[in-house]
Amino acid sequence: xxxxxxxxxxxxxxxxxxLPQKGVLVVLALANMASPxxxxxxxxxxPFVPDxxxxxxxxxxxxxxxxxxxxxxxxxxxxxLSDRYDHRKLLLIGFATFCVGSVIGAVADGxxxxxxxxxxxxxxxxxxxxxxxxxxxTLYPRDRLAEVYGIxxxxxxxxxxxAPLIAGVMLDTSGWRGIMWFLAATGLAMIxxxxxxMHNALRRRAPVKSGGLALAGFMALxxxxxxxxxxxxxxxxxxxxxxxxxxxxYVVIDLMGRSATEYGSYFVALTVTFFFGSYTAxxxxxxxxxxxxxxxxxxxxxxxxxxxxAFVFAGIWTPWxxxxxxxxxxxxxxxxQPVVMAxxxxxxxxxxGSASSLTGFALIMASAVGLQLAGTFQxxxxxxxxxxxxxxxxxxxxxxxxxxxxxxxxxxxx
Length: 414
Hints:
414 residues, mainly alpha, 78% helix
């Protein structure tokens, strides 16, 4: 199914049991979750690192952006590799690198060694994210991919919910080095699952493309108008969410005078609505068709942004007037991501790994741009945040209109 195809006449099934190779899907979802989990479990430990190495906090915090930068590069590197080589072997190499990086970080005797360990962790986590999505595209029918990626998204939300909790327990019991040992054990578990639980599943069904430059897949995909529009859609949706997430602590805690605990409860609620957005995609994309599903999700984004902005510019600044509408925004983002990922893979034309790289890279860059925009324009009121989110919503609407025009074009690609 493509964005231009009619909805499926088959009855939709969102249950995990209805999908073939459901055990493989769970392992792929765990591999996909390695990236956000590894990135989000360590930041709470950053304030404890300076005492170990006699450095300043500002220097120790470099371990966080350095890992994020390496992750972004790894996402781009492993895509072309997964178009050419065996998925299972690449996953094993990635998780082995993850384990090595975790051990190096655990025994680090200096900040530079710790950053090296975190960088290697990011390389391995990037491999898991890219190859999991790419492998799913070769294992499951095209008309089930939105369902598959929706299930993977529902599992991935475990990372932001439990990573800080696990980090807190480890810090209280074994210090920041304990987090690194925990990640090493996690990597070993993923190696075992990949080696023994997926030995036959991750064999490529089609011959691997040979020849050409590693960038050929990226160039081919970005020259595909439908793929480019889908990439812009998923990036803009993500950017809108991160504009809010960057501004929310200041708005909720400083302007509204609410506690950090209350803000944390709102963050959990936003994660839950993202989960249900992905669940909606698994349930209804086959029935409605991807373009109609995206139209509904974009409408939810615009409604959320419009309602919140109306309250903000009217001077009504309460959790119910600002945070509550954004629950619909994160719901929308959760629904958009599986559909776009599925369409990206369907139109990859043998470059599924490169498509996985570009969608993952777009999400990371959009998150960073959203954070930077919110930080740059933050003022004494929530109005700059609302204005930025309205601008992102306008881009989404224009993007959806371009997709609809593409859908109606007589010579659209199939």
